Prior knowledge:
Layout: H1 6-26, E1 58-64, H2 71-90, E2 99-105, H3 110-122, E3 128-129, H4 135-147, E4 152-154, H5 158-161, E5 169-171, H6 182-188, E6 199-205, H7 208-214, H8 217-224, E7 227-234, H9 242-250, E8 255-259, H10 262-274, E9 281-284, H11 291-297, E10 305-308, H12 319-330, H13 337-356, H14 361-368, E11 373-375, E12 378-380, E13 393-398, E14 401-406
Parallel strand pairs: 1-2, 1-3, 4-5, 6-7, 6-8, 8-9
Antiparallel strand pairs: 10-13, 11-12, 13-14
Amino acid sequence: MKRSWLPQRWYVFLAVGLLLVLASACAPPPAAPAAPAQPEAPAATEAPAQPAAPKAPIKIGCSLPQTGPFAETAAWIQRGYEQWAEEINASGGLLGRPVELIIYDDESSAENAVSLLNRVITADKVDLLCGGYPGTAAAAQMAVAEKHQMVYVSMGGHMASFEQGYTYSFGAPPLMGQWWYDGLFRWLETVPPEERPTKAAVFTMNNPIGASVVDLIPTELENLGIELVVNELYDLPLADAAPLVSKAKAAEADMFFSNGFFADGVQTVQAMKALDYNPKLFAQAVGSIIPAWVEELGPDGDYVFSGTAIHFKLPYEGIDHLNQVAQEKYDSPVAPTYFLFGYAWMQALQRGVEGAGTLDQTAIRDWLKSHEITTVAGTFTFDERGLPPPYNFLTQVIDGQVELIWPPEVRTHEPVYPKPPWGQ
């Protein structure tokens, strides 16, 4: 029997269709269309560094006699302050901040000095104080500093100013009349008794400075077994030194104290030579350690003893540097005494601030009273009055140079004693 071809073809188509369906079911799904490419983000960049804002300066204020009779000496104190400020700023400042000095002219008036110190505290709002000059101004300003509870470093106003119960004032170093001849008397203790002077004549200017200088002389002489045969005051200006010298010569005094300033000291030396009075030991209070003494008197100004709390030949760190500064900046052969004073007072204030690590005045005061400090004037500790232990260096003019005699560790020349005759 003949079969039809249609069913067979249908089977073929059916088989092929089943195979296509199975193949489609087993195939992986079509891939999703790719997302369009995104532009690459730019790399992050650091913002440029901004300069640090300048730190506010630490303001330090005071008054000094820029005019008037005390201006010449005070000018050197101010230069000492300014030298310190220049150097501290060059080294990064105080507590990391620059310092700024505010100094007013008190015209050599203690009354002005008081009002101007009040001004820098209340109007200028200074952070720290610097000290005034002379002792009369310093003594008056110490009371102002105490009232406002601010640390005040200066020469002071001799011993009386440190015995008022003030707690914020410091003499670092002080210029203490009562200690003026401390070095002289300590040296005399080393002189054999048989070689010491036997009689002393003392003539003192009639003012508070003279009173402080003469204060301890009678006691010191008594302790050394030296008789005090003349002890008199004279008024300034001194009209004639001859009567004083004549009285000392008549009393056969072989030790003579001229407790005055430069001008009356020069008059006294001239009268001594004119009257051929030549004691074994001649001591002068203020004036013999300044260059004008030798300029005025020449060799006649030699061999006079005096005292000082600071000196350009001291073997302390910073002295040589300040001598060089004085030569280069001010054409001065050495660092003048009050240049050193001003610099040392600012160093002492700096030590207190850096030691306390703050501008808090009570913290600075307490740190200074509980720590030892070192400045170009030496090493100090302070008692409850703000004073170091009593001291003063003994000086003597020898061959026109102011030499250090006592204590031995700072001596620059052996003392010339007894005094040679005039002209030798």
